[in-house]
Amino acid sequence: MERLDINNIPKEKFEPISIDDNLDREKISAPSLNFLQDSWRRLKKNKGAVISLVLLIIISVLAFGSIWVSPHDPTKQNPKHINLPPRIPGISIDGFNGTAVVGGNRVDKYEQAKVPDDVNYYLGTDGLGRDELSRLLMGTRMSLIIAFVAAFLDLTFGVIYGMISGMKGGRTDNVMQRILEILSGIPNLVVMILMLTIFKPGMMSIILAMIITGWITMARIVRAQTLKIKDQEYVLAATTLGVSKPKIALKHVLPNISGVIIVQMMFSIPSAIFFEAFLSFIGLGLTPPTASLGTLLNEGYKTFRFLPHLMWAPAITLSVIMICFNLLADGLRDAFDPKMND
């Protein structure tokens, strides 16, 4: 085999490589994404979570927007318009056209009550003549406010308590965990009844009852994640360099467990909504004329056989809100931690 003489290679065989071509070959085609952008990209692939997020935004906008724009006054009573069925303009379907069956015959309840043609109650009225749609918007708003405030306070107390317990460790951790075990053994209903002996039934009593025991789950999850993160190499390196524990907790531990905290908070919101609805349903929650999903259910089930729409509307709204929050929480869990799908 004839060897190639390097010295005899003509210069025409050599082609210089441009710097631009070399840089293009090493260029990363995919855009650089941070943690939140990458999580949002994965969340958008979950259709159930996206639809739930859109529905929750719509419900929240309608509920809080009704403070300024509402079909009717939710607390105003009108004895002339009591127990009217729903009437939606342009719809002739029975049950939504203002008619009801009375004595085996279908009659126009709006005509009997002499309701003006330009006055419509899209979800009917209750036994005091109050607009059910306006009260439903008000009740949804109150339930969401209670849930968001309780979830925020659970987040605050649970994260602080859990991080202190996890970062301190040793005897301090043991004492703090025994306190959690004592508090977790107290049922929420018992706490609520004790609160009613001190405070009047209302929003403050419900929020305080949720705070006393609601943050325990968050504290335990944060403690477990803190114990896991604080043994990582970068945390040990920061400790070796003399960084204080509070600074390590805020700079290294908290950002790395933020996904777990957000997911747990999203799960706690529907639990708080259901707890408020349960307390209001049994008469330990909000007091009239303030409306919530629980009080509307309490009023609607009494006349369910004759006026089913008074119960169906808040029941469907409560179910949709809780399902959407749970689906969104599942989607966020998969988005923040892709290993959960493996």
From TrEMBL:
Gene3D superfamilies in UniProt: MetI-like
PROSITE patterns: ABC_TM1
Domain ABC transmembrane type-1: residue ranges: 140-329
Major site of localization recorded for this protein: membrane
Keyword Secreted applies: no
Localization per Swiss-Prot or TrEMBL: Cell membrane
Keyword Transmembrane carried by entry: yes
Keywords assigned by UniProt, alphabetized: Cell membrane, Membrane, Peptide transport, Protein transport, Transmembrane, Transmembrane helix, Transport
InterPro entries to which the protein is assigned, alphabetical: BP-dependent_transpt_permease, MetI-like, MetI-like_sf, OppC_N
TM stretches of this protein: 49-69, 144-167, 179-199, 205-222, 260-286, 306-329
Membrane topology summary: Multi-pass membrane protein
Protein family according to the UniProt entry: Belongs to the binding-protein-dependent transport system permease family. OppBC subfamily.
Protein name: ABC transporter permease
